[in-house]
Amino acid sequence: MKITNLPIPLIDRVRAQNPVVLTVANSVTAGKVADALSASGVSPIMSQAPEEATAMVNLADAITIDQAQLTLIRAILDANAGQRPVVLDPVAVGSSAYRLTIAKQLLADYYFTVIQGNASEIAALAGFAASGHSIDAGNDQDDPVMVAKRCAHAYHTCVLLTGATDVVTDGQEVFTNPTRTRMLTINVGSGDMLSSLTAAYLASGDNPLASSALMATAFSLTGAVAAQHAAGLGSWQAHFFDELIQLTSDRFAAQLNYGKDDNNDE
Asked: What confidence category does residue 257 fall into, taking pLDDT thresholds of 50, 70 and 90?
């Protein structure tokens, strides 16, 4: 898939449709996730109680799941019954056997429209040995496209792998996004924001691969543009949300080449 095939009008469609995204987020990043969704024209809702899972799902247009609360996750996925797009964010799944077991159980029991994670997380799900920080040294493991495709094949879904180059694939077609900024790596919650925003684009989009590719590109581009004006992480966060709230289809199209050299902004 080429960058010229991105469904750029979807950015404005999301704002016009104002989809509701139900996010099972950890307490560390919940505020950032809600702000990112709101800045993008999306209505965030979050829940801590399995007892209200059905009510919350009925309000939602899409769902994002991390692995924070298994009872709540199953209640939400059971209530959804495959009716709405769901993004799985397998946070640090390679850091413990327990997390990996839970993730694989969820993937065996439910269908996820997109799995979004960093290279280490996707590698762990694909069957590679991985640490909590990065993929262990090896041959095929060093190829993020191959890792993402293997994961997509294993779970018959679309995978969004983030890294120095983002990879989006359904196991056949592949999209790569080289735009990156160091700030997205050191900012806690970047992955959580991306997974929930991806869910919003799935709610309003027609194709999971194209919608995920657009979101991956728009998210990293927004981070790179913000980094051009930031002195450090604190000011970058402010600029990031300022850029996100101004993101439109026309603005994105005009800035597509902006920040491509911002991969080593020290």
From this structure: low
